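Message: I would love a firmer grasp of how sequence relates to backbone shape in proteins. Thank you; the sequence and its tokens follow:
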Amino acid sequence: MIQAGTGIDIFHEVIMSFKRNTLAASIALALAVPLGAQAADSAELAQIREQIKQMKESYEVRIQALEKRLQQAEVIAGNAQAKAEKAEEKIVQSIVAPAPSTSTGTFNPEMSLILSGTYANLSQDPANYRIGGFLPNGGEIGPGRRGFGLGESELVVAANIDPYLRGQFTLAVTPESTVAVEEAFVQSLGLGNGLTVKAGRFYSGVGYLNERHAHTWDFVDAPLAYQAFFGGQFKDDGVQLKWVAPTDLFVELGAEVGRGSNFPASNRAKNGSGSATLFAHLGGDVGVSHSWRAGLSLLRTSPQDRTYTGAGVTNSFSGNSRLEIADLVWKWAPNGNPVNTNFKLQGEYFRRHEDGDLTYDVNTANNTDRYASAQSGWYLQGVYQFMPRWRVGLRRDQLDGGSVDYSSNSAVLGTEAFNPSKNSLMFDYSPSEFSRFRLQFAQDKSRPEVTDNQMFLQYQMSLGAHGAHKY
């Protein structure tokens, strides 16, 4: 029989044991909860820190990209601001200067004067200069006179005639003190649809260098190809139609018909045209630092009694002449800003076919027989502005005498097999956009028997209105 006290003691022991176990469990639980929470917090904090790190790296990349875009935008905005300032200046000038009208005293044309001078040191007599293997063209070829001399000076007068037409007149004074009308034309304004019409005397739009005046050239003289195939430059009296397409890519198409009064044509006394040209130019930008322009041109003429002097007598050619030209220009300027440094690569390729009759010694022998030729030439030049106002340039000229058939006149005119060439190196300094000083060295192998070592010192000054140069 169990006693009452003993049962109570046992119950008491059970209660105390339960309390001890509960207290131990509570203490263990109280200790376990913070440790679990701390572990969970540490994992979450590590995850948050990793996310912040990734976001920071991502934003740094995006910020760098935005900073680069900002720099490019600032350059573009600076160029746009400069253009806007020029446009504003023109607007102010148009307000200050009254618009052209028929009233006396209100005509205010743009006037400019180009002054040029040269000192030439030549190892060969320029009086004997010729381009071997090519028919003489009577144009402005060769290095000019030895010693000091004036270059070609130009007086330009231009103005808007009315809201529909603009006129320009250019008078040239040669080093020999002769005066000639270089250009005199009217040009349409606001025809719309990208169309422009020009009529009068003007430099043709064929090729790249042809329609640019000498004071905008990068070298003292024209390339040999221009001298051999154009006698310097091709200009004519006629009409030009030009169209620029409304596209992001620059597309320019043009056609001309003219009198045909200059080499390779001849001044024919006839109704109609004596020359016709077609040309197409494409161009555009590559990124923000590069731009380009390429073109193809065709010139067709039908010279009649085109005379030239050779072998001490006067000869003449009548027939057909076709000249094809391919040109390419590539320009580079960091971020589109050419002020500090820039580079221009320029080249043209010429190929001419002529077929007709050649008369040897018009006044005496008067021997007429077939003449045919296929000749070509090219030049390639690069000009680098290595610091503000200073440039250096290198040009290579090469002609290919090709095939020439004089028929029975070969006995007296010969079939000279020769490929003329020339290398030129120039340095120039431009105190401003209105003045330039140039030093040029050249090794001219235009004649088969001699090499002409040339050195030129040149100055060019622009007074008065100074329009923007073509691309």
